Amino acid sequence: MTITADDIVTKVCQLSSLYQLSQEREQLGEPCLLLMYVGDGTVLGSDDSEKAEAARFLREADFMTAVVSEGDISDELASAADLVLRADETDEYVAKLFKDKTKKQIKEINACFIKARTAPAEEVLATESRAFYRLMADKNGGNSNE
User: Fold this and answer.
1) Is pLDDT at 144 greater than 80 in this prediction?
2) How confident is the model at residue 28 (pLDDT cuts 50, 70, 90)?
3) Helices in 65-120 by DSSP H: which ranges?
4) Which regions of 2-127 does DSSP assign to beta strands (E)?
5) Domain that holds residue 122
6) Which residues are CB-neighbours of 9 under 8 A, at least 6 positions away?
7) Is it the case that residue 10 has pLDDT exceeding 70?
């Protein structure tokens, strides 16, 4: 497994299983987006307990997750991540996604997507509303009225 991290994106290559990520959490840094480059042999975990741990880790992650592949991605891997991306489109997608955004803006946007993993729609909308007002307060130098 090879990990390359910057302030916004962490790329993990040569993964045999997504379970490895839960065991190497501190090596991932504090990304806004985790790109997991998978191959034909990559699995969620080698047994049910590893699969459950990997799925839990990705579901509870405080960053967005994307499975990236040059070929087809199994339903099991695709359902464990927030996004599924084709390898040849990933750099362009990430550039567009984060273009002209500060890390704080990205984290506020991520909070909405992360909340959407498990929360009902009204909680997601409340999170989105709070994020919007915080970002507007930053932009205008005012109070967020929370």
Assistant:
1) no
2) very high
3) 75-80, 87-98, 103-116
4) 2-5, 9-13, 33-37, 64-69, 83-86
5) 101-145
6) 31, 32, 33, 34, 35, 94, 98
7) yes
The count of domains in the chain is: 2
Q: State whether 83 and 127 are in the same domain.
A: no
Q: Across-strand partners of 117?
A: none
How much is the pTM?
0.85
Token pair 């405080």 in the structure block, residue: 62
Beta partners for 69? 86
Q: What is the mean pLDDT of residues 34-49?
A: 94
Q: What is the total residue count of the chain?
A: 146
Q: Identify the burial level of 25 via C-beta atoms within 10 angstroms of its C-beta, where 0-12 means exposed, 13-18 middle and 19 or more buried.
A: exposed
- Same domain? For 74 and 125 the reply is no
